[in-house]
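Worked example

This section walks through a single chain of length 150. The input is the sequence exactly as stored; nothing has been trimmed or padded.
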Amino acid sequence: MTGRLPKLSFGRRLFGGSLLLFALLLSSVTSDAVDIIANRGVSPNTLSLASARAIFGMRQVKWPDGTAIRVFVLPDDHPTHGAVCKERLNLFPYQLRQSWDRLVYSGMAQAPSEASSEEELMNRVAATPGAIGYVRKVRANDPVKIINIE
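Given that input, the structure is written out below as tokens.
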């Protein structure tokens, strides 16, 4: 054994390079595919991952200025709900549901408010002081602000 790697054919190198490029492009497209949104009156513009998980997990109930947090979500089987859980909160949707159920059944918290569509969710976040939620993409004229997750 000489300790050298075998030479790969041009076709294999091209395929491997193409696969790597595809993976990089896919990750850059999906990494910010879901925006966390809040009512324009909410004071923070950024949240740590731990704070975002605590808020959506219904464990943090007030903003730093004392305003009550109202969480709006989409149904568990909605693709955007799955995306925000996996891409932004680093959780599986069932983990978030288990957290909500545990807190609700123990009497420690209320379940988040559920909207049937992204448009309804955005309108409810815009109209509710202290509200937070998520949508696929926010446009410049939407009545909410984007919260960045660090």
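What to look for: The domain at 34-149 is CATH 3.40.190.10 (D-Maltodextrin-Binding Protein; domain 2).
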